[in-house]
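Hello support,

Our group uses your service weekly, and this is the first time we've seen a run hang past the timeout. The protein is BlaI/MecI/CopY family transcriptional regulator. I'm not sure whether the cause is the sequence or the server load. Input pasted verbatim:
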Amino acid sequence: MVGAHGGWCQGPEIYNTVEGGWNAVSCQYDGPRDGRVEECADTRARKAADVTAGDARARRRGQGELEAQVLAALHEAAVPVSAAWVQERLGGDLAYTTVMTILSRLLAKQAVTRQRVGRSFLWSAAADEAALAALRMRRVLDRETDREAVLASFVTTLSPDDERLLRLLLAQATEEPED
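Update from on-call engineer: The timeout came from a worker crash unrelated to the input. Re-ran successfully.
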C-alpha cells in the first residue's frame, strides 16, 4: 500500500525507504530539520480504526450478562439448538468460540444440557431463571463452613414480605410427602 508520503507503508514494523526523515519505527515524517512531525495517511487511518473499535469494546458486559442472554436464547427455542443458532440469535459481532465458551461454562454449572448429533452438539436450557438463581444460592451456601450463620444472616436481611413468603414456602415443603 502506498502511504500519503509516497513511500510504501504497511505499519510501523515495515521499514520505509523514503529518504528525508521518515521514521521506520513510527511511520512519522520528522521533516528535514524543521522539527515538524506528521503521520502518514495509513497510520492515521489505522489509529482511527483502533479508536472506533475501542469505543465498541468500551462497554463491557456485566457479570453473568452474556450467560443470561445465552440462556434466554435457549429458552425461546422450542427444540435443542446448535451453538451457531444461539450465536445468530444474540446478534452483534459475538464470535462462535465465545458462544461455545459460554455454553461450556453453563454446562459445567448444570444450567444447560447438550446432546451429540454427528460431530456437533445441540443445546437446551436445563432450568428456568429462578432455578438457576436457586442453584447459585445453593453453591454459595455449600462453600461456607458455618451454614447456620450464613442462613441466619440471610434471613435477617429479608424484607417482611420476603420473610412471609419464605415461611409459606417452607410450610408447603414440609407438607409435601417425601419420595
